[in-house]
What we know:
Layout: E1 5-10, E2 16-20, H1 26-35, H2 43-51, E3 55-61, E4 64-73, E5 78-86, H3 95-110, E6 118-120, H4 128-132
Parallel strand pairs: 5-6
Antiparallel strand pairs: 1-2, 2-3, 3-4, 4-5
Helix pairs in contact: 1-2
Pfam family, one: Acetyltransf_7
Keywords: Acyltransferase, Transferase
Domain N-acetyltransferase: 19-155
Amino acid sequence: MESKSTKGAPNSTNNSYEIIERSPTVSEHQALWDSVSWGNLDTGMSEQSIANSIYAVVVEIEGQAVGMGRIVGDGAMYFYLQDVAVHPDHQGHGLGKRIVERLLAYIRQHKHEKGIAFVGLFASQGKEPFYEQFGFKDHSPGMTGMFTVFEPTAPQE
Length: 157
């Protein structure tokens, strides 16, 4: 993925945030997951997940990754926002909004020209209003988002 960046509003130390079109590194991905209490990720799983992204952005300040967001899906009709996270020390500066705006702009530009795009996400509890500002809504009771989790398989002996 070609790296492009835009500067953002200065923070309290008069430095600016930069949104860069690139995937997070495995260590950045794991550190940001941990910072927002999503749990620990296996290195191999993180690496494969990042590699299979359609598009990603990372927010940096002074070369340090403090936010990220990824798109996964089929690249034509179905797109899912994943791993939209901003380190708690950097929340409240509009970074999450800027990440989602960049991800949605990518989808608008790259969805199949003759069809609609279905864009989904799972919002952490209490974060629903944040995503509603972008047009996301709970479609129940007419439609229910569902998922299942496959636990790790025990090693064969």
